[in-house]
Amino acid sequence: MVSIIDDDQSVRDGIMDLVKAMGFKAEAFGSAEQFLQSGRAARSSCLITDMRMPGMTGLELYDRLVASGERIPTIVITAFPKDGDQARALRVGVVCYLTKPFDDNQLGTCIVSALAAHDSHRSES
Asked: Which one, 45, 74, 75, 96, has the greatest CB density within 10 A?
């Protein structure tokens, strides 16, 4: 299951269409808080989250999940790259950091990497 979190409905829909076209199951959420309240973290094999959203940012969501023991391979996307965000994201374990607009192939490669990381982590458990 690929969970998509973005406050922009059109971005959520576009990513959802791409993920489904790749043959994966997907569900979308309008905010980090909505995702956390859904109880879907345990079912997620990959997380695609916007960096800048009202409330909790994508990196704050990732940090919170890691702190709670949920290590979901995560792809962070942003339309507003800031110095240091990409380096910090990759340093703490985010699989990919993409700047909007990104190429569908880039996102596809990141999803495949994230799912491989998820499968690798599961086999170690």
From this structure: 74
| 46 SS3 class | strand
pLDDT digits (tens, 9 = 90+) for 53-63: 999 999 999 99
- Structural domain count of the chain: 1
β-pairing, 46-50 vs 96-99, is: unpaired
* CATH number of the domain bearing residue 10: 3.40.50.2300
What's this model's pTM, rounded to 2 decimal places? 0.93
CA distance 32 to 117: 22
Residue 73: CB partners within 8 Å, gap ≥ 6? 45, 46, 47, 95, 113, 114, 115, 117, 118, 121
